[in-house]
Amino acid sequence: MAEQAYTVASDSETTGEEKTSPAFPEIAIGIDIGTSQCSVAVWNGSQVELLRNTRNRKLMRSYVTFKDEVPAGGVSDELAHEHDMLSGAAIFNMKRLIGRVDTDPVVHASKNLPFLVQTLDIGVRPFIAALVNNMWRSTTPEEVLAIFLVELRAMAEVKLRRPVRNVVLTIPVSFSRFQLTRIERACAMAGLHVLRLMPEPTAVALLYAQQQQQSAQENMGSGSEKIALIFNMGAGYCDVAITATAGGVSQIKALAGSTVGGEDLLQNLMRHLLPNMKDLFSHHGIEEIKKMGMLRVATQDAIHKLSSEMAVPVDVDLGNGTKISKFLERAEFEEVNKEVFQKCETLIKRCLCDAKLEAEDVHDVIIVGGCSYIPKVRNIVMSICKREELYSGMNPLEAAVRGAALEGAVASGISDPFGSLDLLTIQATPLSIGIQADGSNFVPIIHQNTTTPVRKEQNFTTVHDNQAEALIFVYEGDEKTVEDNHLLGYFKITGIPPVPKGVPEINVCMDIDASNVLRVFAGVIIPGAKCPPPFMEVRMPTVDDGHAWSAQTLHKTYGSTLDLVTVKKKGQH
Amino acid sequence: MCCNSYGLIPISSPPPPSISPSSLHPRIYFPNYPSNFQVLGTKFGSLKAKSKLNDVVSYAEIDNRSFYDLLGISETGTLLEIKQAYKQLARKYHPDVSPPDRVEEYTQRFIRVQEAYETLSDPRMRDMYDKDMAKGLHFAFSARRRYQSDESMEDKGEWRNRWQSQLSDLKRRSMHKDSSNSMSWGARMRRQRNEASS
Fold first, then answer.
1. Could you tell me the residue range of the domain that residue B85 belongs to?
2. What is the pTM of this model?
C-alpha cells in the first residue's frame, strides 16, 4: 500500500466529466467521516456490509501523520495515533476545521489541539501545520481529508476487488454549502465522485425506514406512518432529525444541528483539570505539544470510563511540577459541561417545534454517535421525548455509514429482488437560503426545512433613484442579520434602467435540484419595457477562501449603492 | 415560522370580485403574453374536462388539475389517505428513483405533488383551498404561495390583499403557461427577452 501515494486527480469542483453509464452500474460506497472515527460500508447484493482494514477494524481513527515524504493516514496504521499525537506530526479533527475562516470560534477552540492552528482574525483560512523534523509543515483540512480518503479508497478497492469512484458521504446538519464544497473538493483530490452528501441523521433515518419496511413485511402489517426522532452526537457535531416513515419512504420533517460534540466535552474537562492550560500551551513548542497530547489522552480516557463508572482517578504528570492527581466524579463532569448538554436540549426541542410535533407524537427515539454512550446525553434525550426506552435496533457507531451505503445503492439505481432497496429519502434543507436586503438583513427565499427539490422566488427593488446595478449577496443560515450567516457568494446584476427607486422589479429565484445543487437566478422585470436587461444564472456557492474578508471590503467600497429592498405588498399601507 | 396566523379570514369576508377577462384587462399587464392571456379566459369552462385526464398529460394540463386530482384522491379524502398518496407518488416521481432520462420532468411533477401534499395535509390551508375551489378558483401550481403570503395578512385590508394575490396568481399562472414545454426559468427569461427585442 506504500505506493498508494497522495495523488491529486483533479482539484476542480467535483463533477468534471460525466461517466457514461456502464452496463452494470457501479454501486456507490457509503463513507462516514467522523471527527474522530471513519467507516466504509457497501451494499453487497443482499445487505449492507462494513469493510474492515488490514487490522480487521471497522472503525478507523480519522487522522493523518506528516512524518516523512509521504503522509500516512489512520486507515491502516491504528496504533501510531497516540504516539504521533505527542510529537505534533498528526493532524486530526479536520471535520471540525474544514471550510472555516479564522474568525470562527470553532477554529479558535482548536488552538488547544497538539498541532498548530494560528489565526489572524481577519476572515481568511487559518494557518494549520504539523511539526515535521522541528519545522512547521503547513496543510489544509481539505488536504488532510483527501490524504485520508485516498487511503480509504485504496482499502475499499482491495476489499471489493474493483475500482471505487462513486461515494455517498455523510455530513453534519450544520454544515454550510461552502463547507460542502470543501468536502467535494477533498473527494475530487482523492479521485472520488460524490453522488450524495447526506446529513448524518437522514442516513440513520433511511436505515430506520428499511428496518420498518422489513418488519412490516414480516408481520404483514399495514406499514402505517411512523415518526422517529434521531439524535446523533459525535466528537464534532450534534444533529437532530425527525422523519416520518411509511412504506420505505423516509420523509425528513425537520433538521437541527450545531457544532457541539465530544470535542467540547473533552476541552471543557481539560480546562477544568488544568485551569491555566491556555498559558501553559501557548508556545506550541515540542514540549508543550507533548504535554497537550498527554493531557488529552488522559482526559479522553476518563470520559470513556465515566460512561460506565461513577468516578475515575486521573493521574497525569506533565513535568516541571505540573501534575494532575484527582478523583473525578461523573457529576463533576456533567457540571463542567452543563452548557453543552443544554445546547443538546435546545436542539431537540427546536427540531420538535419545527416539525410541529409533540414528544408524544414520536414513535421511536433513536440515539447514535460516539456520545450516545454518555449517560447524561441519553437521559436528556429520554426526558425531552418523555420515554423510558430508546430504539435498540441499531449499532450507534455504524448506523450512519449503513444508511449511507443504502443510499449509495439506491442512488446507483440498484434494485433488490426482495425489495430491501425499495427506499427513498425525501430530504429537507437544513438551513435557510436567502439574500441580503433591507440594509444588512437576511431575507430567506428558501426557508429551513423545505422539502427538496424546490424552487422559490421573491421580488426585490432598488433603494436609489436611477440605480443601474444591484449586488445579490447570497447567504445561508437562520440568523436575522447577514453577518451571522454563511456567505455563499455574490454577483452583480447590471443594466437596470434609470428609473426612480422602487420601480424596477428584481426577481430572485432559487432552485435546489435532486443532486442538491443550488442555482440562483436574478433578473429585472420592467412592465412594458421593450428590451429587458440581461439576467444572471449562477451556481452557488461561488466564494473561495477569505470570503468574510471580501464581503467587508465590498461593503467598504460600495456602501449601500448596490443595495436592494424587499417589495412591500401593495395591499399593506 | 408559525403557521397559525394565516387563517384569519372571516367567513363573511367580502367575496373577491368576479373574474372575467374584461375586468382583468386594465389591472394586469402581461408584457409578452397576449396569446396566453386569451387562453386564460377559456380555461375555466374546460376545467372539469381537463381534470378527468389521467396519464399522458402535458405540464399545462397538470396545472389545471386540482390538488386532489394530483394526489389521486377524492375531495373527502382523509389525512391518512393524503399521506399515503403522497408517499406513493413520491416513490414514483422523486428524482432519486425516477428513470435517468426523465429526471427533469419528474422533478417538476414531484414539486407539484409536494405542493399539493403540503396544502392538503394542513387543515387550515386545506380549508382555504376548498373554499377557493368551490368558487372555481383552484390553480394547483403556485397556489400555496398565496396561502403562505396570507400569513401576514391583516384583518383590515385582507380581502383586498387576497384579491391582489389572486391577480398576481393569475399573472403567475399565465407566466407559467409559457413553461409548458418544461422550460427552465432561465430559458423562459431568455425567450421573453428575445421576443421583446425582436
1. 63-136
2. 0.81
